[in-house]
Write a structure and sequence with these properties.
Layout (H helix, E strand, L loop, with lengths): L2 E5 L5 E5 L4 H7 L10 E6 L3 H12 L3 E5 L8 E6 L7 E2 L1 H4 L9 H8 L1 E5 L12 H9 L3 E5 L2 E5 L8 E4 L5 H11 L5 E5 L5 H12 L3 E3 L6 E4 L7 E4 L4 H13 L3 E5 L7 H10 L2 E5 L2 E5 L9 E2 L11 H8 L5 E5 L10 H6 L3 E5 L2 E5 L8 E3 L3 H13 L3 E5 L2 H6 L3 H7 L3 E5 L3
Parallel strand pairs: 2-15, 3-14, 6-7, 10-11, 18-19, 22-23
Antiparallel strand pairs: 1-23, 1-24, 3-5, 4-5, 7-9, 8-9, 11-13, 12-13, 15-17, 16-17, 19-21, 20-21
The structure holds uridine-diphosphate-N-acetylglucosamine and phosphoenolpyruvate.
Length: 427
């Protein structure tokens, strides 16, 4: 298996193009199940998760065509056509590799009146139950059965009648599933305390472009008036705010200056606020953001929260940055119960971090040193890359399949700004 070898210490400078958002793409792709007409998505990132989702869609009989962008270009165009759905079952083998497969449940139920999806298991960052996905669908009139590790959802003849659901906990995925089920309901569906992440807005915008009727887009109360049918659409996937935030940390931890082309400052306001508190300079304009630092970073306290709060998907990267900041920082992870898997690895590189439950106390150290490390999830892996970029000596990061799920051409992008990083085959 491949590994990344990083020789730390280079000041990163230049421009990084920001890719389409993984977490938006993973909810836009299943929208193709909602119509017989083609849905064309532009600016799709080249990621293992997107390939996995394409495979899953093919399994349902959806034809997918990747249109000709050159391999050297970032972003792809994929047309998906679900003229005839030949299977309503998402098997364990595909779902286990990609949790987001659960997002086919809502649209498949809406279009076909039934859907059977393997229950996704827990993962490194926590249990990640799907009870709220199922309760929301039940509230709209679906019948749910659980058997042999699969969830089977069925709509009454003629479709979902509609209803209301008040989320007891904000859930991005459950909001997405509920929205995709609601758009073809016979009546009106109301969602209260829904997630408001920019990726949800992206989903709503595509659904509206396909003919859906949704009120309250961008707020936590959404009203969906079901329509008889949806039509095809062409849509550009939003920029990846987590990828942009991750590279912003790379500029900061190396005392560098990076232009993040295509990043949208307003969608990552909490990350920008945190970076400014740490002493990082950020300039925002209509086409991107520019991040620079003289290397003099200071401690800050951070708490993750649903949007517009600080994204849990930025916690590990900001923690890596704080490892070298002056003073003591306190981090609180409120979204996932087990999202500090990077801590022991960062410690092996010289970081001074203590954790107690959901709290981490990070005391800034003068220097980090290169080491052989590996992480068990996507953002944790990126935090190790960050530490490697700032460390003295060589760092080797293993288990690259995590990074390949979520960072398009990671090492190429870092090389563009002067990082000494290469992917090599394992010996
Ligand atoms: C593909 C995708 O978009 N993934 C993102 C999505 O994951 P995902 O959609 O899985 O995360 P959720 O927003 O659903 O999870 C938030 C919290 O709700 C809990 N919960 C969720 C569903 C449920 O049915 N029951 C329940 O209790 C979870 O365990 C967690 O504690 O949002 C997370 C939170 O911003 C991000 O970290 C992930 O990157
Ligand atoms: C946790 C993440 O993704 P997923 O929900 O796909 O595991 C992430 O993007 O950081």
């Amino acid at each position: 298996m491949d590994k990344l070898v990083i020789r730390g210490g280079n000041r990163l400078e230049g421009t990084i193009p920001i890719s389409g958002a993984k977490n938006a793409a993973l909810t836009l792709i299943p929208c193709a199940l909602l119509t017989e007409e083609p849905v064309t998505l532009r600016n799709l990132p080249r990621l293992a998760d997107i390939d996995g989702f394409q495979h899953l869609m093919n399994q349902f009989g959806v034809t997918t065509v990747i249109q000709g962008t050159r391999p050297e270009d970032f972003g792809r165009v994929m047309s998906l056509e679900a003229t005839r759905i030949t299977s309503t079952v998402a098997p364990y083998d595909l779902v286990r590799k990609m949790r987001a497969s659960i997002l086919v449940l809502g649209p498949m139920l809406a279009r076909m009146g039934e859907a059977t999806v393997s229950m996704p298991g827990g993962c490194a960052i926590g249990n990640r139950p799907i009870d709220l996905h199922l309760k929301a669908l039940e509230a709209f009139g679906a019948e749910i059965e659980l058997a042999q590790g699969y969830v089977k959802a069925m709509a009454p003849d003629g479709g979902l009648p509609g209803g209301e659901f008040d989320f007891p906990v904000v859930s991005v995925g459950a909001t997405e599933n509920a929205l995709m089920a609601a758009v073809l309901a016979n009546g009106t569906c109301r969602l209260f305390n829904a997630a408001r992440e920019p990726e949800i807005v992206d989903l709503c915008n595509l659904l509206v472009a396909m003919g859906a009727e949704i009120e309250g887009i961008g707020t936590s109360d959404l009203i969906v008036h079901g329509v008889k049918r949806l039509h095809g659409a062409t849509y550009k996937v939003m920029a990846d705010r987590i990828e942009a935030g991750s590279y912003a940390c790379a500029a900061a931890i190396t005392g560098g200056a990076i232009r993040l082309e295509g990043a949208k400052g307003d969608e990552m306001a909490a990350t920008i606020h945190a970076l400014r508190n740490i002493g990082v300079n950020i300039e925002e304009d209509a086409k991107g953001i520019t991040v620079s630092s003289n290397g003099a970073t200071r401690a800050t306290n951070l708490t993750t929260a649903p949007y517009p709060g600080l994204a849990t998907d930025m916690q590990a990267q900001l923690m890596a940055l704080l490892c070298k900041a002056e003073g003591t920082s306190v981090l609180k992870e409120t979204i996932f119960e087990n999202r500090y898997m990077h801590v022991p690895e960062l410690r092996r590189m010289g970081a001074d971090i203590e954790t107690e439950g959901r709290t981490a106390i990070v005391k800034g150290v003068e220097r980090l040193t290169g080491a052989e490390v590996m992480a068990t999830d996507l953002r944790a892996s990126f935090s190790l890359v960050l530490a490697g970029l700032a460390a003295e000596g060589e760092t080797t990061v293993r288990r690259l399949y995590h990074l390949d799920r979520g960072y398009e051409r990671l090492e190429e992008k870092l090389q563009l700004v002067g990082a000494d990083i290469e992917r090599v085959g394992d010996d």
